[in-house]
Design the sequence.
């Protein structure tokens, strides 16, 4: 009996993780003015404060910031621009990264 | 009480030379002065610096030896994208040894010093990929929060040994920053107008500072957000006017000094470790003003 419950629980968790991965949507932001790691913290913090943002990855060399948001969350260019501006930097590009499964 | 205070001040007046290094507070982001880089809106930056200022090159018979050590705390807050407020509060231990009346005399005090509040406005920004240019004027006021009436068994301590000056002082200037992924250059022009308290006024101080921070590691920049190790070289030109006691200029105070300051910074996204030493390379001081030997600075900064 315990084994059945454990198996069911694992299956549920797996399904949730899988659904979450498929539901997440990523955006690529081009942020100008970023030139040292200490400055990047402000961009990370402002973007993470946006509702629905799960993850922020900064690539200092290219100035690209990848933002992953949960499905259904509103994350548009105006929202990204406000966050980047509040961090003290300039948003130069904003694009949605197509999801491999959904093609969105 | 007043007489004792004046007597103490009269033999301490030549110590003004040490102000050349200490009068402009270290509130910002190169090691010895500020930067024009942003503090995010609603974000905080805390900087703690241990400072050791040694002054023992006395041209006079008093053979004065002045040592100032302590912590300087700087808290910055981003009010808006362009406007940041900084508060600077030192806790300093000031020690003076000198020959007087045929014996070696030690005088000292320690405590919280004067609080300086500075507002900095980023007036110009030009951002590109992996680089930025910023120009930011700033204004500040120093409040007399430190004790300025400390005494020992010999009477009132000299002004330079007191934790606070007792006066409301004002400062202003402009700082500019050019930062790329490989290096950063900061330059600052600042002026501090000191006012009178207890019949004494420290001379006004002007400073021109330049800092180069060059990325030593990683040599090749990869992806992500790696930590940087910067080699730092700074130059500080400081000009202090003569002090005034009872309205009369002290001929043995003030002057001009040039410091070179090598240092290192280890920079991550959340914190910075840094250390540097200001070495006087030229000192043109008035009369027997006490010369500076070095100023050692080490500390950290945290983003939150």
Sequence:
């Amino acid at each position: 009996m315990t084994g059945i419950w454990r198996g069911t629980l694992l299956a549920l968790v797996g399904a949730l993780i899988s659904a979450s991965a498929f539901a997440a949507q990523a955006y690529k932001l081009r942020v100008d003015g970023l030139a040292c790691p200490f400055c990047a913290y402000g961009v990370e913090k402002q973007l993470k404060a946006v509702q629905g943002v799960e993850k922020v990855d900064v690539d200092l060399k290219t100035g690209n910031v990848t933002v992953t948001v949960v499905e259904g969350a509103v994350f548009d260019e105006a929202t990204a621009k406000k966050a980047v501006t509040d961090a003290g930097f300039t948003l130069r590009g904003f694009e949605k990264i197509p999801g491999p499964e959904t093609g969105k | 009480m007043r007489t004792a205070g004046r007597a103490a001040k009269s033999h301490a007046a030549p110590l003004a030379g040490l102000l050349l290094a200490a009068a402009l507070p270290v509130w910002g982001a190169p090691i010895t002065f500020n930067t024009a880089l942003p503090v995010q809106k609603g974000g905080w930056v805390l900087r703690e610096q241990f400072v050791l200022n040694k002054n023992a090159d006395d041209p006079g018979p008093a053979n004065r030896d002045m040592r100032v050590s302590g912590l300087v705390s700087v808290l910055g807050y981003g009010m808006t994208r362009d406007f940041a407020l900084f508060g600077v509060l030192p806790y300093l231990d000031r020690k003076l040894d000198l020959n007087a009346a045929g014996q070696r005399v030690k005088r000292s005090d320690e405590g919280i010093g004067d609080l300086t509040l500075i507002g900095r406005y980023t007036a110009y920004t030009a951002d590109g990929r992996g680089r930025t240019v910023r120009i930011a004027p700033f204004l500040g006021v120093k409040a007399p929060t430190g004790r300025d009436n400390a005494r020992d068994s010999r009477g009132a301590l000299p002004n330079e040994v007191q934790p606070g000056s007792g006066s409301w002082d004002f400062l202003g200037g402009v700082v500019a920053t050019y930062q790329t992924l490989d290096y950063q250059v900061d330059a600052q022009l600042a002026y501090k107008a000191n006012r009178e308290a207890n019949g004494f006024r420290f001379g006004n101080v002007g400073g021109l500072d330049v800092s180069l921070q060059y990325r030593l590691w990683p040599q090749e920049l990869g992806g992500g957000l790696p930590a940087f190790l910067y080699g730092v070289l700074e130059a500080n030109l400081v000009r202090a006017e003569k002090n005034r006691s009872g309205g009369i200029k002290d001929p043995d105070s003030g002057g001009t000094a040039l410091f070179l300051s090598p240092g290192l910074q280890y920079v991550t996204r959340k914190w910075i470790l840094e250390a540097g030493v200001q070495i006087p390379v030229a000192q043109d001081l008035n009369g027997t003003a006490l010369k500076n030997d070095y100023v050692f600075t080490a500390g950290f900064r945290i983003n939150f």
Observations:
- The first strand of chain A starts at residue 25 and ends at 32.
- Chain A is about 40% helix and 30% strand.
